[in-house]
Design brief:
The chain is built from 14 helices and 2 strands. The chain is an all-alpha fold. The chain has 2 domains: 124 residues, Peroxidase, domain 1, CATH 1.10.520; 135 residues, Orthogonal Bundle (Peroxidase, domain 2), CATH 1.10.420. A two-stranded antiparallel ribbon has the order 1-2. The N and C termini lie far apart (69 Å).
């Protein structure tokens, strides 16, 4: 073959190789960058593309141990705190997803969620989250989101109270804003019918079964008299009495002496233990909130689940874990619209 021809062939071959290499590089970049944009650079197991396991394994391996230590200390000092931290995560997730919006104080741009009706004079645990965040900022600055702290603290609260454990998916980002009106709208009230409860959960893609399982969180903690005045009347069942008279009378006595802020245990039998006692209480007419008692009396489907969980604690634990993971993945905020706050009470 003439030399000119050989040079021409060689040049063509090199051009092809270069084109192939560029194509390969392009594909590699797309594969590397797209998950980072979508998932904030985190793993992508299970919960859509956004959350993953082992997210802090390299960047903050101590994260979960620090959170666990903070929860343990707080619950040791105040046993009710386990319930309060569990509820904090729920109230976070139901408003624009689990993005720590619930932790933001009011500022010039918005009124936060802390003064919304379901939260005012009611939500607790903000100082515990602040203390955990401060510890984390010392060890791994601006690495662990406040929303992830809430999710892990909720799990740990269940664990230290004797309940099940599960892997918490992480990689949530913290929001830039909060919504008082959505907090008022999305979080169900204590006099809700089953239909209302189902629709409020369906609004955030959680099922009737998720609702009944997650309501089992009321196996811990307390409620104010203002939230269960409907129960002081006794019967919630149009077909006849459904509540233990003795129970209703004891609540009447408690609340008659107060300004509405007196507290009763949500689970009258084992108030500081995470177990299935809540469902047994519902079956004996001793659910504290009307919305709780309605699960046993207001609907056949919810009643069936209440009976299952009352008979089988491990069925309750399994479903509770699954539903917590589902709730914890609500609206995970991505790099595009979230950040890792330095202080959980304010945007950076
Ligand atoms: C199904 C609809 C729900 C309604 C209507 C409801 C309503 C309430 C109300 C009214 C209180 C008492 C608040 C007060 O008196 O200050 C309360 C407490 C509590 N809620 Fe719920 N809740 C629901 C679901 C949930 C879920 C899904 C969770 C968690 C997964 C949860 C966890 C708790 C806990 C642990 C407490 C006690 C908090 C403490 O002692 O500080 N609740 N809830």
């Amino acid at each position: 073959m003439p030399r000119d021809k050989r040079v021409e062939n060689r040049t063509r071959e090199m051009a092809m190789n270069l084109a192939l290499f560029s194509l390969f590089l392009g594909v590699a970049i797309v594969f590397a960058i797209v998950p980072t944009i979508i998932g904030g650079g985190y793993g992508d197991e299970d919960c859509g593309d956004l959350l993953g396991n082992d997210v802090y394994k390299d960047r903050c391996p101590e994260a979960e141990a620090i959170i666990y230590a903070g929860v343990r200390l707080a619950v040791f000092e105040d046993p009710r705190m386990a319930a309060s931290l569990l509820r904090l995560h729920f109230h976070d997730c139901f408003v624009n997803g689990c993005d720590a919006s619930v932790l933001l104080d009011d500022n010039d741009n918005f009124v936060g969620e802390k003064t919304a009706a379901p939260n005012l004079n009611s939500l607790r645990g903000f100082e515990v989250i602040d203390a955990i965040k401060q510890d984390l900022e010392i060890v791994c600055p601006q690495t662990v989101s406040c929303a992830d702290i809430l999710a892990v603290a909720a799990r740990d609260s269940v664990v230290v109270s004797g309940g099940p454990s599960w892997d918490v998916q992480m990689g949530r980002k913290d929001s830039f804003t909060a919504s008082k009106s959505l907090a008022n709208n999305n979080i169900p009230g204590p006099n809700s019918t089953v239909a209302t409860l189902v629709s409020k959960f369906q609004n955030v893609n959680l099922s009737l079964k998720d609702m009944v399982a997650l309501s089992g969180a009321h196996t811990m903690g307390k409620a104010r008299c203002t939230t269960f005045t409907a129960r002081l009347q006794g019967s919630t069942n149009p077909n006849g009495p459904d509540s233990s008279l003795e129970y209703v009378q004891s609540l009447q006595r408690l609340c008659s002496e107060s300004d509405g802020n007196m507290l009763a245990n949500l689970d009258l039998a084992t108030p500081a233990t995470f177990d299935n006692q809540y469902y047994l209480n519902l079956l004996s007419g001793e659910g504290l909130l009307l919305s709780d008692q309605n699960l046993a009396t207001g609907d056949d489907q919810t009643r069936e689940l209440v009976e299952t969980y009352a008979q089988d604690p491990s069925a309750f634990f399994e479903d509770f874990k699954d539903s917590m993971v589902k709730m914890g993945s609500l609206g995970a905020v991505t790099t595009m619209n979230g950040e890792i706050r330095r202080d959980c009470r304010s945007v950076n």
